[in-house]
Amino acid sequence: MTRLLTWLSPSYPVGGYTYSHGIEYAVETGRVRDLGSLVTWIDAALSRGAGWTDAVLFVAASRAVRAGDEAALEWAAERADVMRGSSELALESAAQGTAFLRTVRASWAPEGLERWNAVLDRTGRPPAHAVAVAIATTCAGMPSDLALCAFLHGFAANLVSAGVRLVPLGQTDGQRAVALLDTILHRVSTKAHEASLEDLGSAAPVIDWAAMSHETQYTRLFRS
């Protein structure tokens, strides 16, 4: 448990604080302006956007490692790399996944991780954050439902933190947002474990649009 808390702590050096997942542009255009609209935005990301895609691929990667199926992991890693709505969203996932695996391997690596890291290397693709965490937590023997909830909580909490700084909101409103999103991320995790690979996909075009628009935003604090 402490290893999972460490790996998904905001202090873990993956650079998550540098990304807003399009929220910075959404704030500039008035689409995110208060607690309610911030929760709605993150709910969409979790339920229909990158959060859902990552959840399904997290489960797929975890099952592949548990089964010793290298081809299945390669498939999940490839899909996780290409299923991004913009170059900044791709960077957000790949940069965090790369930093996560690098740090885990150098500090608190579970048995078997090197085998699966070599599989990722063979794909020639950077590891998506969700796939990297799925591999490490599965190698460490952590239940995938617990690990996925922790991953989604970290994803949501990082976006709440970005919203608190950008809107801006007070810290108490930030904690209210985290509380409101808790039921949602548990629902997404449960649904992802029940889903088939045919359920893979996203339907959050406004988030993708905001992320694309952020790439040319005149002033910005975040990378995405």
Describe this protein's structure.
By secondary structure, the chain is mainly alpha-helical. It has one domain (22-215): Urease accessory protein UreF. Helices cover 70% and strands 0% of the residues. It contains eleven helices and no strands. It has helices spanning 2-7, 23-28, 35-48, 50-67, 70-82, 87-107, 113-123, 129-139, 144-166, 171-194, 205-214. Belongs to the UreF family. UreD, UreF and UreG form a complex that acts as a GTP-hydrolysis-dependent molecular chaperone, activating the urease apoprotein by helping to assemble the nickel containing metallocenter of UreC. The UreE protein probably delivers the nickel. It is found in: Cytoplasm. One of its GO terms (molecular function) is nickel cation binding. InterPro entries: UreF, UreF_sf.
Keywords:
single chain; 224 residues; mainly alpha; Urease accessory protein UreF; 11 helices; 70% helix; 0% strand; globular
Short synopsis of the structure:
It is built from 11 helices and no strands. The chain has helices at residues 2-7, 23-28, 35-48, 50-67, 70-82, 87-107, 113-123, 129-139, 144-166, 171-194, 205-214.
